[in-house]
Design goal:
14 strands, alpha/beta, binds glutamine
C-alpha cells in the first residue's frame, strides 16, 4: 500500500513536472508568435516609402507587408531620418530596416543584409535648366547630399577629384530643395527615386544629368549577428513573393516603365 502511494506520488509529480515544462515551452512559442519586430524605414523616400494619408506606402512597405504575411510575423514600422537608421540598428534599438538601403561592403562590416531585392544606383540630379550633362561637368560644383547615404559617400570619395563643395541635408526633399533654390548645383540621389519624382511631378523643376554613376542593390538589414530569424524570414518570404508574382505586382504598381 505504502509502496503504491509512493509510486503514485512519483507519477503525479512527473505529470506535474511535464505539465510545467509543457507550459514553459508553450508560453515560449506564444512569445515568438506574438513578437513584434521594430522595423525602421526612411520617412520620405518615394517610391520606396512615403506617407499616403495617415499610412505609409511604397515598394519597401508593400514588400515587407507581403513577406510578413507569408512568414507570419508582426512588425511595427518606425519611420526615421535615414542617417539615424544604421546607428539605431547597431545599438539594437530597432530590429531591422527596409529603407532603400544599398548593400555596401562598408555596411556589411556592421550589418547583415538580406538577398538583394531591388537594383538601384546613383544619378546626378540638376535643375531643369542646368547645362550639367554628367560627371564631366561637375568640377568645382556644389553638391547637395543626404546625410549618411551612399550618395554622400560617393561625393566624399570624389570630392578632391572634382573639387566639390559639399552641403548636407536630413532628407531627400530638403536635398532637392537646395538644388531648386540654387544653394547647390547638383544632388546625388538613387535613380529610381529621382525618376519617380520627375514622373509623378512633371513640374518638379528637376532632371537627371546623364547616366547612372553607380549601381547598387537594396537589401533588408539587421544588426550583425542579431535577428537571424527575421533575416531568414525576409529571405524566405522574398523568394515566395517573387515566385507567386506578388513582387512584380508591387513593383509595377509604383514603377511604370519596368
Ligand atoms: N540607397 C542609398 C543608401 O543606402 C539611399 C537610401 C535612402 O536615402 N533612403 O545610402
Amino acid at each position: 500500500m505504502k509502496k503504491k502511494s509512493l509510486a503514485a506520488l512519483v507519477i503525479s509529480s512527473m505529470v506535474l513536472i511535464s505539465t510545467l515544462v509543457g507550459c514553459g515551452s508553450s508560453s515560449d512559442s506564444t512569445k515568438t508568435a506574438s513578437k513584434k519586430y521594430i522595423i525602421a524605414t526612411d520617412a520620405t523616400y518615394a517610391p520606396f516609402e512615403f506617407k499616403s494619408g495617415s499610412n505609409y506606402t511604397g515598394i519597401d512597405i508593400d514588400i515587407l507587408n507581403a513577406i510578413s504575411k507569408k512568414e507570419n510575423f508582426k512588425y511595427e514600422l518606425k519611420p526615421m531620418n535615414f542617417e539615424g537608421i544604421i546607428p539605431a540598428l547597431q545599438a539594437n534599438q530597432i530590429d531591422g530596416s527596409i529603407s532603400g538601403m544599398s548593400i555596401t561592403d562598408e555596411r556589411k562590416k556592421s550589418l547583415d543584409f538580406s538577398d538583394p531585392y531591388y537594383d538601384s544606383g546613383l544619378a546626378i540630379v540638376v535643375k531643369s535648366n542646368s547645362t550639367i550633362k554628367g560627371l564631366a561637368d561637375i568640377k568645382g560644383k556644389t553638391a547637395s547630399l543626404k546625410k549618411g547615404t551612399a550618395g554622400a559617400t560617393f561625393a566624399e570619395g570624389n570630392k578632391d577629384k572634382y573639387n566639390l563643395n559639399l552641403k548636407y541635408f536630413d532628407d531627400t526633399p530638403t536635398m532637392f530643395q537646395a538644388v531648386l533654390n540654387g544653394n547647390a548645383d547638383i544632388a546625388f540621389e538613387d535613380y529610381p527615386v529621382i525618376s519617380y519624382e520627375i514622373a509623378v511631378n512633371p513640374n518638379s523643376g528637376l532632371k537627371i544629368a546623364g547616366k547612372k554613376v553607380t549601381t547598387s542593390p537594396y537589401g533588408f538589414a539587421v544588426n550583425k549577428g542579431k535577428n537571424a530569424e527575421l533575416l531568414k524570414m525576409f529571405n524566405d518570404g522574398l523568394k515566395k513573393i517573387k515566385a507567386d508574382g506578388e513582387y512584380d505586382k508591387i513593383i509595377n504598381k509604383y514603377i511604370k516603365s519596368k
